[in-house]
Amino acid sequence: MSTVLERSAAFASRARELTPGGVHSNVRLSAPSIFFERGEGAWLYDVDGRDYVDYLLGQGPNFLGHAPARVNDAVAAEARRGSVFGANHVLENEAGELFLDTVGWAERVRFGVTGTESDQAALRLARAATGRTKFVRFAGTYHGWLDNVLMTMVDGKPAPGSAGQLPHGIAESYVLAFNDAAALEATLAEHDDIAAVIVEPVMFNNGAIPPAEGFLAEVRRLCDAHGVVLIFDEVITGFRVALGGAAERFGVRPDLAVYGKAMAGGWPVSALAGSAELMDLFAGGVVHAGTFNGSVPACAAVIASLRALREDPPYERLEAYGASLMRSIVEIGGDHGLPLRAQGLPMAFHVSFGDPAPVRDYAGLAGLDLDRYAAFSHTLADHGVWVAGRGIWYVSAAHADKELAATLERFAAAAAQAGA
Ligand code: PLP
């Protein structure tokens, strides 16, 4: 049972009169009804004067911590000179050069605003390049909320993820189990209408499941063998699991990759990157548009964020912090009789209740008690640790010793309550 915070409760009650469910994204419907007024570094501050160590990071974008001064100062300074021109401006080239140099493998980039739309651009490009219509994806990955990608599994079969979704949307894809290269081989051999394979290189959206040894390389090989475009959805992994994202960390190059979240210090920017051959189709009949693409604040945010990550790479610190936190969560759980488990990478991992053995695919998550964890996430909020109810924990460059100590103390108090 969540603590009732008076001012938050008043805000929440008014919010329900203004917007459906009181939230502007369905993902937030099951979160505690707490209203924040400020974020700084790894901390959030609510309207009732309480503080929280934040591991939601706005669902991932605040990789540099909240309100990073370098990024926000750059955005504010540039915004004084205008924000969106619907025409070229001087920051675009600097942002594009820095982006491509940082990613390492791609030759062209198109900026967008959300991962959802850049994923659609990637799929359209793959269809245009191959003249085929369908794509392969993996159960449990998330590629945005639109009709052809929003999906859930019912009794082991793909089903629309929303009422009102076009029923033929999900028929655009063949849905396979993550980490099952043999199934991909069979599917590509059987069907000649496949334009693309789209994959979250680490399946962070369900269980933070890492790719099995050699899986991504095998996906690459099979795509090459069948003339299929390989799309990495790096919206979570990009700039987070390594400076060059999953492509760098796992040593596999996609044909196209979609980025978002960590690339712009908390500002709404996404990107589609890839080979010149594919990407230049956008200048030859494939449409990709967006009023706010490559806006002045977006470019300023990308430039400042990528410079910050290149000049002071946080990756080693994140590895140490996250590994220690994952270990402690399991240990503290054990101290209080809670079968807590953690898997993933130190900079983003999944916590739930259940058997500690690693889960390899979406079906494996059925053995975990995800509902119990969702309830525990509210207990954590009561004790000043802000996490997603679906289990993912994001660590930022702003998490340091003080935050770790505060987290462990608060986590232990929450575990004592839940285990009592
Ligand atoms: N792809 C992945 C892997 C994501 O995690 C998300 C969002 O969480 C998206 C795409 C969609 O991005 P956005 O919410 O910016 O539309």
TrEMBL record:
A Pfam family annotated for this UniProt entry: Aminotran_3
Gene Ontology MF, one: pyridoxal phosphate binding
InterPro entries, per the entry: Aminotrans_3, Aminotrans_3_PPA_site, PyrdxlP-dep_Trfase, PyrdxlP-dep_Trfase_major, PyrdxlP-dep_Trfase_small
Top-level taxon: Bacteria
Keyword tags: Aminotransferase, Pyridoxal phosphate, Transferase
Cofactor(s) needed by this chain: pyridoxal 5'-phosphate
UniProt keyword Transferase, yes or no: yes
Record PROSITE patterns: AA_TRANSFER_CLASS_3
Protein family membership: Belongs to the class-III pyridoxal-phosphate-dependent aminotransferase family.
Protein name: Aspartate aminotransferase family protein
Lineage, opening ranks: Bacteria, Bacillati, Actinomycetota, Actinomycetes, Jiangellales
